[in-house]
Amino acid sequence: MSTLTLWRPVGPAELELVRASGRRAWPPRLPDQPIFYPVLNEEYAVKIARDWNVPAHGSGYVTRFAVDAAFAERYPVRQVGGRTILELWVPAEELAEFNAHIVGRIEVVHEFRAGGGDGA
């Protein structure tokens, strides 16, 4: 099976929910979050975790995971800024099915804390 590697920047609360799943699933979206959007570029995920999650939550994390590539093709890739700022848009109501197609575990590859530093 071919897989697609994706990244997702998260704050501490979302990371705890991922850990609670055994690092195998993303938590359901909140009512004001109609889209789950992992990103296709590690550098973009780092920027979000470091520049947005740290100021908002005191820490930010970049996770990496793989999903069945054939399954992932059903979701549109959206360019939300520059040429490399790409997100996969998964409707919130399809997240459980998306989670079922994750291959392996969700891993933390970068950790940022207030005061600086990458603790991964």
Q: Can you describe what's shown?
A:
By secondary structure, the protein is of the alpha+beta class. It has one domain (3-113). It is built from 4 helices and 7 strands. It has helices at 12-20, 42-57, 69-72, 95-100; strands at residues 3-10, 35-36, 59-68, 77-79, 86-88, 90-91, 102-113. The strands form 3 sheets. It has a 3-stranded antiparallel β-sheet. Strands 2-6 form a two-stranded antiparallel sheet. The protein is globular and about 40 Å long. The mean pLDDT is 94.
Provide a compact summary of the structure.
The protein is 29% helix and 33% strand.
Proportion of β residues?
A: 25-35%
The ordered string of helix (H) and strand (E) elements is EHEHEHEEEHE
Question: In which range does the helix fraction lie?
Answer: 25-40%
The strands making up the biggest β-sheet line up spatially as 1-3-7
Radius of gyration computed on alpha carbons: 14 Å
Overall tally of structural domains: 1
Strand runs, count: 7
Task: Outline the biggest β-sheet.
Answer: 3 strands, antiparallel
Helix vs. strand class: alpha+beta
Stretches where pLDDT is under 50 for at least 5 consecutive residues are: none
Total count of helical runs of at least 4 residues? 4
Mean pLDDT across the residues is: 94
Organism: Actinomadura sediminis
Protein name: ADP-ribosylation/crystallin J1
Secondary structure layout:
Layout (H helix, E strand, L loop, with lengths): L2 E8 L1 H9 L14 E2 L5 H16 L1 E10 H4 L4 E3 L6 E3 L1 E2 L3 H6 L1 E12 L7
Antiparallel strand pairs: 1-3, 2-6, 3-7, 4-5
